[in-house]
Amino acid sequence: MAKPNLFKSRKFWIMILDAAVSTATYLVTAFADPAVAEKVIWVILAWQPVVVAVIIGIAMEDVAAINNP
Fold first, then answer.
1. How far is the C-alpha of 13 from the C-alpha of 8, rounded, in Å?
2. Pick the residue with more confidence: 6 or 47?
3. Model pTM score
C-alpha cells in the first residue's frame, strides 16, 4: 500500500482553511467594534461543529473505502 500524501488529503485542506478563517476572524475582531466582533465570533463558533462533522464524514468515507476494496 502506498504511503498517503498529506497534501492530497481533503481533511487536511479543510483543516487548513478552517485555521486560516479562524485566524483572519481573530485579527479582524481585534480591531473591530466590540459589538460587531462579538457577532463575528459567534458565527465562526457556530460553524466549527459543521467543519468538524465534515472532516469526520470524510474520514468515515475513507475508512469505508479502505475496508471495502
1. 8
2. 47
3. 0.75
